[in-house]
Amino acid sequence: MRYNLPNDLKKFTRKKLVGAVAFAVITVCVIVGIYVGLMAATAKISVLRRVIMSAAYVIVAAALVYVLKIWRRLTNGTYAGKVKKVSVNRGVESRSGGVGQGSRFVRRTVKILVFEPGGRTNWHVALSANTAGADVDDLFREGDDVVHLRGTSIVNILGAKHVGCCVCGADNAVSADFCQKCGHTLIKSVEMIKND
Ligand SMILES: [Zn+2]
User: Which of 36, 130, 143, 185 is at 20 to 30 A from 136, Cα to Cα?
Assistant: First the structure.
């Protein structure tokens, strides 16, 4: 579904898409370039060794693509609609990779099923973070109207006491039309960006 975003947000999301595509293309070029160089440098060793080397390189390249979140960057598109279902996934408890040493951290992933204008429902990852007892289970509720812009990690709940900015996340007064921090247009309803 394509949304009818205000011009400044259209520009913002287009930039994010171009950035994600450029990043993916550069990464693939680097991976292929290194492989070509590797094959040229090892032209004299046995075929079996080269096959093993190639297999190892594919694994390293796949790991790189995963770590750099290439796929996530490309697919992190704009969506808006009503939350139909919320699913909270608790990951493995760990003691590292978060703020505050000594505390326990659980990576939690909050997925929301969003009923989008036009009749489609899609699952989206609304949050994935190491949380130390933070209350993320009740962050989203069924029936909430939400909006998310391409390339950001922000999922705004509409109709709250404050209007959240979809670009920078700042809280704004309900009466404001533009973000007081970054100046972008504030999305106040799904209706506002719905494509007729
Ligand atoms: Zn803002």
Answer: 185
